[in-house]
Amino acid sequence: xxxxxxxxxxxxxxxxxxxxxxxxxxxxxxxxxxxxxxxxxxxxxxxxxxxxxxxxxxxxxxxxxxxxxxxxxxxxxxxxxxxxxxxxxxxxxxxxxxxxxxxxxxxxxxxxxxxxxxxxxxxxxxxxxxxxxxxxxxxxxxxxxxxxxxxxxxxxxxxxxxxxxxxxxxxxxxxxxxxxxxxxxxxxxxxxxxxxxxxxxxxxxxxxxxxxxxxxxxxxxxxxxxxxxxxxxxxxxxxxxxxxxxxxxxxxxxxxxxxxxxxxxxxxxxxxxxxxxxxxxxxxxxxxxxxxxxxxxxxxxxxxxxxxxxxxxxxxxxxxxx
Length: 322
Prior knowledge:
By secondary structure, the chain is α/β, with parallel strands linked by helices. It folds into three domains: 63 residues; 64 residues, Homeodomain-like (Arc Repressor Mutant, subunit A), CATH 1.10.10; 158 residues, Nucleotidyltransferase, domain 5 (2-Layer Sandwich). The protein has eleven helices and eight strands. It has a six-stranded mixed beta sheet, with helices on both faces. A hairpin with a 5-residue loop joins β4 and β5. α1 packs across α4 and α5 packs across α6. The longest helix is centred in the last third of the chain and has 17 residues.
């Protein structure tokens, strides 16, 4: 028996090869990428194009009505330029959305003197199939929450809030606006890694306080500058503003915000419960006459913090409530 082993190519790989050949990718590049030895391999794949596409769609749960349109691009030169640009942008880890891609395609068409090129979402759908483009999120790190911790907290919570009305149970949380952060989702090629690149950390921070029934809310902002230019003409701000070199909350700012909240509750003659996460900038070492601070268990706020949950819980269209 011969020692030579025949190259085995999956249906998925064959389908990708067809898409790339139709989008103008050079044969030499495809041979190298899929570790094929002969041009005849590509010829054989293209000869069986219809069978491969049908098989690929059947494996991916597609019906005959949803079979991919494998026709080549109408404007070959425009698409070649656009694909080359896409490759360059993705090599630099630049995030790309629909609008950016279509606008760039339109500019290439103008440069090449193509007047009937229509940069529509329909064109982009065809480009995605031909070039193996995916619109996906580039993932970073994630922290899992111990279910045992959640169950234990759930049993203890009823005794902690006993004696408090929903209007007297509050939650404090911070959220940040990273105003220079690129989108986490981008159009990328199917053979790319899903790992993202380093992200900009320039931001402002909002500190939110609200009660369980949503009848009382407070908001404070933290920025880098002590006197932002945008606030020059504003004598009175609708929210409290604090400054910190990194626009983060620190012990000093946390103390000021919680003390002001306590003064507000004192004026209302209310004794309230305030739930917060146990990060290092949050402390109990503040004399509060009308506010009792309770910390969530470590590494559990993504599952337990009410203000986190509200961000991801859609409103019921019938009741307007979560």
